[in-house]
Structure formats: structure tokens, C-alpha cells
Design a protein that fits this description.
Layout (H helix, E strand, L loop, with lengths): L19 E8 L9 E9 L5 E8 H4 L4 H13 L3 E4 L2 H9 L6 H4 L4 E3 L10 H7 L10 H18 L8 H13 L15 H6 L13 H13 L10 H13 L4 H11 L1
Parallel strand pairs: 1-4, 4-5
Antiparallel strand pairs: 1-2, 2-3
Length: about 270
């Protein structure tokens, strides 16, 4: 497993010590600054591959009042030691980061895995599931995608003992061997961006603002601060970095606007 695909120390953890929470959210679009979360789902996966529902929410059925309780349950499990598993973790965290009511523990999970990034080359959830013989029932619904992710993970865990697989790193390698990879050797992804706010600045447009900072931009920036372990220094690792960049670009925050907002913190 590459370092960009999971939290520090996770590859060496033995499988019998790891509980998992597979999570997915669906949105009204791709821009966290303008679009909204319309549903989410989470499933727990035990070290033996047993799957159970943790939380499901849909705006059409459960309404706004039901949004937070399920996220709190997911956050509590993650805070208790479960590994948060998402296919494209940056995308989901970007949308949660701009929600002032999202649990902070979920924005900064101590242990996480991004299945999109754990492979040598990005692959869709369909390709990951198909390579492991998992059928997705309800593609592009939160329950369908989170359920398929949980089932793919459970498949790897169930066959692990017979394949001599003992830790998370070997489990990821087994996913590569299962036909998901392109045949390219597994390799670490280079972290070639500067850390902190300088790294974020390098990824934003350099347009001089002709108007004051908008309220929506301040809201997006405040949401990003909740995602960070150290808001003064800025993003410390690639998942934080990419989630913040996505959220800021979605809110049309340029380098000049970012400088104003960061300056106001100090």
C-alpha cells in the first residue's frame, strides 16, 4: 500500500486488530462550494468480513434533521479505533469540511484508507468491485456504493487466511494481485507539493480580487479549518491538502483571497 493511500502506520497493523467502516456520500454535483450532500451510508466490517449497517441518510426520506445523528455514529466508531474506508476520501471530506455541523472526528480520522489511492493507478469502484467478484446493487447511491466497498473489503478479509495474509499492507497487495492493477509495480506516490498554506497557494488561481471577500468564501474557508489538525500552518498531509484545495477552488477562492483569510487568523 502506498503512503498516500492510507494513514501512517496502517499497513503494518495485523488484520485481526482492525475494525473497518466503509463510507460513501452522494452529492448534487462536484463542487463542495455550491453543491450539497444528498445522501450518505456507512457499513462496519469486522476482521472476519462480517458486514452490518452503521448509518444511512437520504435528504428525500430523512430530511435535514436526520443528517447529523448518523454522522455522529460514524465519527464515534472512527474515534474508537475503526479505520474509515472511502473510495476517493478527498472528495467526501471536501464536502463534509464545508458543513459547520459535521463531526470534527470524522474530518480528521486517526486511521483511514482511500481505496482509490491504494492502487498503483486509480481505478473506479466498479473496477475494484468487479475484480473481486462483487456486484454493485444501486450504483451511485450511497447505500449501493458503500455496501459494495464493504463487500469488496470483506472479500479480501475472508480469503486472507488461506493466502497467508496477516496485515493491512499485504491485504492491499492482494487487491493488486486480484486483477485490479494495470500490471505496473506498486510504488509510492511522490508528495511533490509543499506542505501547509504555501502548498495550497501553489494550487489556486492568482487573480486579484475586485470585490471584498464573499460570505460564501469565508464559510468555505471556515469549513476547511475544521478539517485541519493545525489551522495556523495549514494542511499537513496529502489528504488534508487535496480536500482543502478542492473546497477552496470550489468556492472560487484565489491566492489573494486566501492570503486575506489566512492573514485574518494571525
Amino acid at each position: 500500500m502506498t503512503s498516500a493511500g492510507c494513514s501512517d502506520g496502517l499497513p503494518g497493523r495485523r488484520l485481526e486488530t482492525v475494525a473497518w467502516v466503509a463510507f460513501d456520500l452522494e452529492t448534487t454535483g462536484l463542487d463542495p462550494g455550491r453543491h450539497a450532500i444528498r445522501e450518505y451510508a456507512a457499513y462496519s466490517v469486522t476482521p472476519h468480513g462480517e458486514i452490518s449497517v452503521v448509518a444511512e441518510w437520504c435528504d428525500d426520506v430523512d430530511g435535514a434533521d436526520g443528517f447529523i445523528p448518523g454522522l455522529v455514529e460514524v465519527a464515534n466508531r472512527v474515534a474508537a479505533g475503526a479505520v474509515l474506508v472511502v473510495h476517493n476520501l478527498v472528495f467526501d471530506l471536501s464536502f463534509l469540511a464545508v458543513r459547520p455541523d459535521a463531526p470534527a472526528q470524522l474530518l480528521r480520522p486517526p486511521a483511514w484508507m482511500c481505496t482509490l489511492r491504494m492502487l498503483p493507478a486509480p481505478r473506479s469502484l466498479d473496477q475494484l468491485a468487479g475484480a473481486l467478484g462483487v456486484t454493485i446493487d444501486g450504483r451511485h447511491t450511497a447505500a449501493g456504493d458503500a455496501g459494495a466497498l464493504a463487500a469488496a473489503l470483506a472479500t479480501l478479509l475472508i480469503r486472507a487466511p488461506d493466502r497467508g495474509i496477516l496485515d493491512v499492507g499485504a491485504l492491499a497487495a492482494d487487491a493488486w494481485a486480484g486483477g485490479v492493477s494495470t500490471g505496473a509495480p506498486a510504488r509510492a506516490r511522490p508528495h511533490d507539493v509543499a506542505s501547509g498554506w504555501p502548498g495550497v497557494r501553489a494550487n489556486l488561481d492568482r487573480v486579484v480580487p475586485i470585490s471584498p471577500v464573499l460570505r460564501s468564501q469565508r464559510g468555505a474557508f471556515a469549513g476547511c479549518l475544521r478539517l485541519l489538525a493545525d489551522s495556523q500552518r495549514g494542511p499537513a498531509h496529502p489528504i488534508e491538502h487535496e480536500a482543502v484545495v478542492a473546497a477552496l477552488r470550489g468556492a472560487d477562492i484565489t491566492v489573494c483571497v486566501l492570503d486575506v483569510l489566512v492573514g485574518e487568523m494571525g
